[in-house]
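user: can you give me the structure for this one chain? C-alpha cells are fine.
assistant: on it. calling the predictor now.
[tool input]
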Amino acid sequence: MLPLAVAVALLAPATNPKPERGTVKFVADDKANGVPERFRLDPHTFDYELTLKHTLSNAGVEVWTLTFPSPVKSAHVENDTVPCELYLPKGAKGRPAAVVLDILDGALVVSRAQALWLAQHDIPALVVQMAYYGPRRPKGSKERLLSTDVEKSVANVCQTVLDVRRAVAWLESRPEVDPKRIGLLGTSLGSFVGGVAAAAEPKVKNVCLLLGGGGLVDAFGKHPEGGPILALLSVVGITPAKLRRLIGPVDPLTYADTLKGKKLLLVGASRDDVVPPAAMKALWEATGRPSILWVDATHVGAALHILPMMREVVKTLGD
C-alpha cells in the first residue's frame, strides 16, 4: 500500500470524463424493519450522475464524483444536491463497501484519507458530504450543519441521515459492491451523525464510530468546560432535561438497542479534550460493550494512532 502523500502525488487525469447517468430504486419496508418514523422513506426512485475525477494509478484506485438529489427539500437549493466522492479499487466486484462521514471542519482531509485507505484494502468507500458542507452551503452564507439553533441543527442532521440512506441504496445497486456487506465509518461529528444513520438504515451491517459517543448532555455536564455552558443555558430556560429532549432524535444513545444488532467498532481517545471520554463509555455500555479501542491521546492527537485505528476499521468493514 502506498503512503497517502505518495498516492496523492501520483494523480492521473481522468481519461473518460463523460458522466454516467442513471436511476436507482430505493426499496424498503421501513415500518416492518422498525426504522424510526422521522427517518422513514417510502419506496421510490432517484437519479444520479457519476463522473471519473482522476486515477491513482500506482495505488490501484479510481476516484469518482457522485451527485444525487437529497430526499429533503430545505430552505436552500444548493443544500438539496448531495455531492459525494467514490474511492473505488480497480477491478472491484462484489466487495464490502462503506459510507464515510467527515469531521466538523468539513474539509474532507480526514474522510478522503480514510476512504483512500479503505479502497487500497479492497473496500470501496463513498464519502458523503453532510448538509451545508462544501458546495451544499450557499455562497456567502453562514449556514452550517450545527448552529445555536438547536431545532434547525436537528433538522439538518436528520436530512443528512436520509441522504446517507440514499447513498446506501446507490452502493447497493453497484456491481462493485456486495449489497449484504455495506458499512459506515464516521469520525468525530461524523461518528455522531453516523451512529444515527447506521441505526436508521437496516442495510448497514458494519459500523465504525471514531472519537464520538452518546449522551452528550450528561457527558458535557460533568466536563470542566461543558458544565458552565449548561448552567448558562439553564438561566435562559434551556435546562439539561429540555436539551436532552431536543437533541434526543440525533443522539446515537437513543438508538443503542438498534446498534446492538450491528457489528460495531468504537474508538475513543482516553484524554479527549473535545468530546468527553464519558460519552464514548456511555455508548459502549448502552450498545452491549462491543469491540472498543482506546488510544492514549487527545482528540486531535488521536491522528498519531491512525495505523492501529484503521487496521481495526478495515477488519470491521471488510467482514
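assistant: here you go. The chain has one domain: 4-215+253-317. The first strand starts at residue 11 and ends at 13.
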